[in-house]
Amino acid sequence: MTARTDTFADAVGGLGDAEWDRLADGRFYSSALWLRLCALLEPGSVSGGLHVETPGGGRAAIPVAAVTDEPNPHLRWHDLLAARGLPAPEPGGLLIGQRRGYLAHLLTGEGTDRTEAAAAVLDAVRALRSPLHEESKIARVAMYLTTEDVRALRAAGVRTAPVALTTDAWIEIPPGGHDAWLDSLSAHRARRIRSEIRKFEKAGYEVEHRTLAESWQDVARLVARSLLRYGRTVDVAPMAESFREQAELAGSRAEVVLCSRPGEPPVGFCLYYRWGDTVHLRALGFDHDRLASAAEYFNLTYYIPARLPGVRRLHAGTETAEGKALRGAALRPLWLLDLSEDSPLAGYDEEIRDHNRALLGRLRDSSPAISAALEYDLWEPYC
Asked: What is the pLDDT of residues 115-127, one digit of tens each?
């Protein structure tokens, strides 16, 4: 396959936002908007969109980024694999996926065979030259892939086994909305959530829904206050400017729920993007010294977004698996898959499976809530 020359033309490889979004098909973290936000928030990086045609006349795409000294520890594939006792590709190379939002997808056009699409993307990834590296022999690592996409890429010829990275939490909201969601939970969990909602309501908070464009100053201030609680002092001004720029690009699609005491500045917020019928939770912050210990975190992050009209799921992402499981989340695996032809992980399938089984076992045994929330059928093919 001829090496692509348009991939790094812009965040979507010069394809055009509307055409790219037809391939993304509702997957927010692969949408043109999110990829352009990533490019805005990572000004020193070189990101793009790899798009190809398949032999059968279909189309496929995937976000990519050229990386050298990656500042985000969750994207440092060499460190993550070495910490797991596994062989690791050299740091730096091509990240297959986006720089923010830990969920990457293989994108396919309507009617395109997924294995054929994966094969075309795999060939293009291996032929792609990095604008930051002189050598063509560099790592080409896909991170935070779903099980479905791992299967497609393995069927297309990837020889290495996938490495389990973490859990990805999804809360399904039934057609009946918030009340139907509570009814779908165990009696114990539903009572707990109703108790936390009542506690929040009795605290007398005022809740306001705004766009990020209307609230970026409050958002920045509250993020800084949250970081201060954990010993991190930040300059609010550049952070506020970053949120202002995000708001300018995202417009009404970046939404914020704020809570405050009557007549006072907000004490907490949750920033989210509503994409179709899904709410993607992105950021939150609190002025902890002014909270009433009224379950503010859970109300702003889960319970209030779950009441939004037309919402059918909340994407709660990685980390804090138990808190999400206790609120009805399903926990799906996310994988690292080395797409390099000469991957150092080749031949280590059993060691990788041992790692994956051990991680699944630790999650299963960590709490009854997590054990019940794990979608085992998505873990077991590679455990």
From this structure: 999 999 999 999 9
